[in-house]
Amino acid sequence: MLxxxxxxxxxxxxxxxxxxxxxxxxxSGETGAGKSLVIDSLNFVLGARFGKDFIKRGCDKAIVExxxxxxxxxxxxxxxxxxxxxxxxxSILINRFINISNKTVSRVNGKAxxxxxxxxxxxxxxxxxxxxxxxxxxxxxxxxxxxxRFCSEKLEEEKHELEKYIFKYRNLMDKIKEIDxxxxxxxxxxxxxxYQINEIDDAKLEEDIEExxxxxxxxxxxxxxLKYFINxxxxxxxxxxxxxxxxxxxxxxxxLNNICILDExxxxxxxxxxxxxxxxxxxxxxxxxxxxxxxxNPIELDEIENKxxxxxxxxxxxxxxxxxxxxxxxxxxxxxxxxxxxxEKLKKYKDEKQSLEENINLICDKIxxxxxxxxxxxxxxxxxxxxxxxxxxxxFKINIETKETFNSNGKDKVEFLISPxxxxxxxxxxxxxxxxEISRVMLALKVVLADADNIETFVFDEIDTxxxxxxxxxxxxxxxxLAVKRQILCITHLPxxxxxxxxxxxxxxxxxDERTITNVKYLSDNESVAEISRLIGGAEITQATETAAKEMxxxxxxxxxQNIDSTKIDTF
Length: 572
What we know:
alpha/beta
């Protein structure tokens, strides 16, 4: 749920912190006090676009932060799939700012994210009604998901079975696509595959050939340098001159031999140097042999460079490594074999395809049946709620259209349709013009589908537009019912709705340093009664309105505690 909202430098807001509660959070206040600024700020931090005019006059930037805790494991899994890590406290902090250059920066748990990712994250966490940016139910692609969550576990079993068949079907279609081609295409593919196989075979590739050729090329390309270093080393080690290492060691051995004749305890020195002399002789022989092998061979060097160039071209065509090229050749050989036996295999594959399609269609029919049963029940419940909340002539329909094609959801296209008024045709939710109607339809949908949607916080703006009396009381009770399972934020001017508050916030304009700013105040029980009195009677609060407000609050508390039917509560 949304626990904390911090707003800084937004329009008339200087600095504002709001700590929301569980259940029904009511936001009220006089017209023009700035109630919409709270919702605009929430929209902004959730990814809505606002211009620099959104920033408080005289300030360089505006900041909004939302601290949200999450109960649902499924929501946490969805967030982690989007790359957002959730700590043990199961919370998420969204921070967003905009500066006077219209630059915005968004961070989630300290990590910078794009607007696209932010909107995906936000759509999982909070649903704002009365504004179009965050209405999950306005998106037809979500309708099939919501309907399926309302269906029985049997539907999930059937969808799981369908996924297994579709996996087999797609693999089979890939095989059919490879061989179900015209005779001209078969000839072309056979020629192409044979060419590719021969081209790779002619290169006589081994997995380590590239490394061997590169090493040999390095030697041939540097033969003169190698000869110079070898001969210079041999000159210093043994060739006739006054300072050859071998000669100096030999002379030293003669001296040590004379020492040992006079002092036998130094025999170990003689033996050590003698061993070094023998190792040096062996080293010199190896160096002489290596020198004989080094040759200046431009023909071999040219051949190696051509072979390496060929390998480079093959890698560009068939794979990043020699192993990839050889694997590619084996795959092509398998494809060639399949095409050469295509007629027999195609018949076999098409028989398998027909069998799979029959099984898939059978499962899809079962899925459609389950959806239809659930849809009829949902339609009836939603229409009953719509009648209770002032849309007596509204019709609601879950349209299930069966397509020719299928996917992991079956063959159905699901869309929620509504006719708000008598005589109007059913149409998509997104085409409802009235903000009040949209919010009431969403309220009805949310009450019925509360267990099917993982979103934990709903925000209702304009929900009380055009309602009063008993209808207002019904709307209030439906909000209270929904607030048992979800956190609700609701802006209202109706006392019936305000009386149901689990937490009541007042938005007001106040003077600070000779400036008008918007402030939000958490109301105590007595302060809430006073605000309800204002909503009942307007600017002038009388003893009668105060009494009515107290009674309304008491009855609302009773309704919430006893879960009594809203029609038993008197309408004020």
